[in-house]
Amino acid sequence: MPQVFNQSSNFLARLTLIGGAATAAAIALVAFMLVRSDYATGANTPPPQPVPFSHKHHSGGDGIDCRYCHTSVEESYYAGIPPTQTCMNCHNQLWANSPNLAPVRDSWQTGQPIQWARVHDLPDFVYFNHSIHVTKGIGCSTCHGDVTQMQLTWQDKPLTMTWCLDCHSQPEKYVRPKEAVYDMAYQAPANQIELGHRLVREYGIESKLSCSTCHR
Amino acid sequence: MSQEGLEVKEPQLDLAAIRERLANSKGREYWRSLDSLADTPAFREFLHREFSNNATQWLDHVSRRRFLKLMGASMGLAGLTACGISQPEKIVPYVREPEDMVQGKPLFYATATALSGYALGLLVESHEGRPTKIEGNPEHPTSQGATDIWAQASVLDLYDPDRSKVVAKRGRISTYANFLEEFRAAIGAERPRRGAGIRVLSTSTSSPTLATQMRAMRQTFPDARWYQYEPINEDSALAGAQLAFGRPVHSVYRFSEADVILSLDADFLLTMSGRVQYGREFARRRRPSPEQQGERAMNRFYMVESTPTNTGAKADHRLPLRAGEVEGFARQVAARLGVNVPQAEGGTVPEAWIEALVADLGAARGRSLIIPGYNQPPAVHALAHAMNQSLGNVGRTVLYTEPVLAEPAPQVAGLRQLTQELAAGQVHVLVILGGDPAYTAPADVPFQANISRAAFSVHLGDYGPDNSATSARTVWHVPRSHYLEAWGDTRAIDGTASIQQPLVEPLYTSRSEIEIMSAFSSRPDASSYETVRSTWRAQVAPNLDFEVYWRRAVHDGVVPNTALPPIQPALSGDLASRLGAPMPVSAGLELMFHPDPSIYDGRYANNGWLQELPKPLTKLVWDNAALVSPALAEELQLNNEDVVELRYQGRTLRAAVWIYPGMPGNSVSVWLGYGQPLLGRVSAGTGFNAYNLRTAAAPWYGGGLEIAKTGEKYTLVNTQDHHTLAGREIARHVDAEEYERNPEAVHELAHEPEQVSLYPEYAYNGHAWGMAVDMTTCIGCNACVVACQSENNIPIVGKDQVSNGREMHWIRIDTYYTGTDLDNPETIMQPMFCQHCEKAPCEYVCPVVATSHSSEGLNDMTYNRCVGTRFCSNNCPYKVRRFNWLQYHDKSIESLKLQKNPDVTVRERGVMEKCTYCTQRISAARINASKENRPIRDGEVLTACQAACPADALVFGNINEQGSHVMALKNQPRNYSVLGELNTVPRTTYLAMIRNPNPRLIGEGGSE
Known about the structure:
- The structure holds 2 protein chains of 2 kinds.
- By secondary structure, chain A is mainly alpha-helical.
- Chain A has helices at residues 8-36, 38-41, 55-61, 66-69, 84-91, 102-110, 130-135, 140-144, 161-169, 192-203; one strand at 116-117.
- Chain B is built from 32 helices and 40 strands.
- In chain B, helix 5 packs parallel to helix 25, helix 8 crosses helix 13 and helix 11 (326-336) runs parallel beside helix 13.
- Chain B has a 7-stranded mixed β-sheet with strand order 7-6-18-17-16-8-9, with helices on both faces. Chain B has a 6-stranded mixed barrel with strand order 21-26-23-25-24-27. In chain B, strands 13-12-11-14 form a 4-stranded parallel β-sheet.
- Chain B folds into 4 domains: 168-233 and 407-539, Rossmann fold; 235-401, Dimethylsulfoxide Reductase, domain 2 (3-Layer(aba) Sandwich), CATH 3.40.228.10; 589-718, Barwin-like endoglucanases; 721-753 and 763-995, Alpha-Beta Plaits (2-Layer Sandwich).
- The interface between A and B is large, with 44 and 37 residues.
């Protein structure tokens, strides 16, 4: 009986084995990159909003402080999304007839809240607290980017756990003087690490790494 | 997959062999159940398997082929789940933000709830307008920050999906406006007859506003009548006060002043009104003498009881007596204390016991206390008054005041009279405010059948015509507002008034008692807010600013200076002749009725937290049972779960038997509140209705019971043998005298070897959290269990799942029996939950690091990492980890979502969970303190269980801080680690149970 496989089959067999391994590695690599990509994290893409609210205009142009709208950022885990009332403080006079603001006026008249699309959506098992971060010298722009330059608001950072842990394990890389927390244009100085170490001591920063710090 | 072969054939419990084993046991033996003593196969299953055999079984009726098909399909399609594009989540802010609201921060409001008329002051946590958690109000005299199971679980009642939601007329949906129109017309028709046809039936109440409304109603309608009826009432106490003082007098006890206590069948720690305050004061005096404040000594507590309770379990000397024998015993004691009273023939109580007791009481004149139980006849109450008087306790340990309840009157007699009036056609307008009297009425009072005799009738009830026996028979049904939905007022056991402040608008179209009663006034649609305010406006002295007074009262949860002043009623001189000869003790079997320790009189039957709460001592869940003593079981050849027919005074009832160590012989005890035919999805099919046997003449106990076996079985589920830690010195206890002589006695009970560890030591800088559990003060009231369930979003699983050992409670209260007498064992209760071991066996075996150690020594559980291998649970020597075998949270019911604590993850199927030391509360405190650049203060973090505990038995804190409360306890010589010999270094340690028996009775079997 002649041989079923001739010698060239050896090559095919090797190719199959190596190719199989390479494909598996490629799939793994793609998956690894995919979950970290902007596509998966949702970074850098502004979601559609009912009102085309511009942080660039309000915060950058008009110079309104973050805390005018995000009132609970220093007290609560939640920075707070302003009630319609806050919008109407100004917009019952300014741009009072703008078609873009129709949903705001409707909300004010009907009492039905505006339904904003969430831009920074942490998983439900993560318990992040804004107040402790801003009182310990972590600036808004460290996590949110310079929103004063955002026409529409997008998520600037990946918000992955690796990203969180980068700062929690080395807070000196990111901490800034308390008075600069709401400064969106703040640039880290050249001696950031040196400054950072000093501030970590001064502010009593315990950037905890235990699971229960964020998960419970 | 098949279930065959799994059923363990249950042999008859050989009680004689158990007795012999106990009698021959060397040293002190601890046991959890009769099954464990008999070493039955079922018990061995529980002991040796971390998860019961059935727990790991696929119990759905799905064939192997179908199972494989489903598994194959889910494997194949698993990848698809990653392909969906998740919809962006919405943020929905306020339109106008409420004042004082910081988004994301809970607010606490003071309010009060009442059970059987007596108030408990509360602070209720509200997240963005939804009440989620009940805490005690530290400024309220009865609460002092603590709560009981009923207050804790009441928040779930608010969101009960079975609550009635609409006004109904003869079962058809209507409106409140329509109701009010007809109601007003019916009342108007009574005006010419001076209201002779109007009858109002309410539950027991102490509400000043409701009482004012009733008075106002009878001014307009002088012949109208107001009755009150609750199945658990104070008729006996009222009649007892009549006997002793010739008028209604209310007693308040001060356990803080009492050195020697005698309870005559009074369950003052669990079911009696005032339980939270009494529990706290009792516990304070319960610590061993060296730990007492000032010059005080540990109290000594004697109890005679007819059904074992937690209260009896705490006693230094407990004596089981049939309910009918307590009176004879009380007369014997009274005579020796100098009260002139006719004696019964022969007593069953050992002479030495009575002598020692009387000597102890006599030596503590003015510092002793005798308490009668609400289920004891008036004579026992009168005797207790006389004895307290003769011991000089009045004004010291017993305070008398005017009645706290509004217009107290005999309730059973009242209901009977109302029924007669109904039957005679004299009632034209029947207004039933709350309760479910058609269900709870005595069996020989045909109230239910006569409701329809009234042309106009309305029931203000929690459940609608399809779910409530009363509403099914009245013309109108109006949904009753929960106490968190309506304004009201109520008084505590000492008379202190509280304003009941609502936290939410009514979820449905419900009304409160006060709003219904407004229909009799000139302003029929007045809100409860206006009515309550006008009551209090009339009470305030004109020189005070009412707004200031009102705001203060609402804010504090206490109206200042409203406690009733003590009075000194004169004991009637001819008590002996008034008491007459004692009631003869019935021959044969005695049947006793008790409120259920979980669902009370049945009002909480549709509350899943309470149904699944293991009842103290028996650990039964989801059912009641006919409780019999081991002796009676032996005599009648009864086994657990046997269905018997109880024949009592011409009525019969089928019930399942449970053998209850500590029951007196020749008596059977049943819990009320079960077997409600209608009610809701939770209560459906639970238990049997003991009201069917209860008569007006003998509401608490009576003789002449016969038991007939039916040969059938009914599955009763109890958790006593679940999570068993057998054969070690788990629950240690020593006597006070021995402890004072040798403080190391607790540690000599077990071998505590020198510990060496292969694992590196870890330095805990900053905070190191730990807990101390005082088993001496723990009264086993379960408040911690429900508080934990409420705080930590713990689901209920149902009777079937509990029978598989799948209950999810993070805290369990283990009950250990000891002593050689099966009919009167000593009882020790030990709360058990995650011990947060420094060298935690669970952590080493988790393959995905889902359970890990925090820098402050917490044993963290990260749900989102957990893949459900359950290795951790297998490796936990304390058996405190709980696995979500199925999707237990019902996500389809919207109203239940409102109760969830937003600070704690709602766990999905397939993850392990356990006590976290309330890490969310630690986190909140840590962030607050860190923002203020200071360490967390001692007492700043209260775990949910600790906050609820009336007995201060659970203390949490920083063990790195020597002056902390928790370290004060841990430094006591009676502090020990459970299973410390395993070198797990648990952060939770236990303070051994100390008992304080009378030296004169030791060795005579008296302490058993």
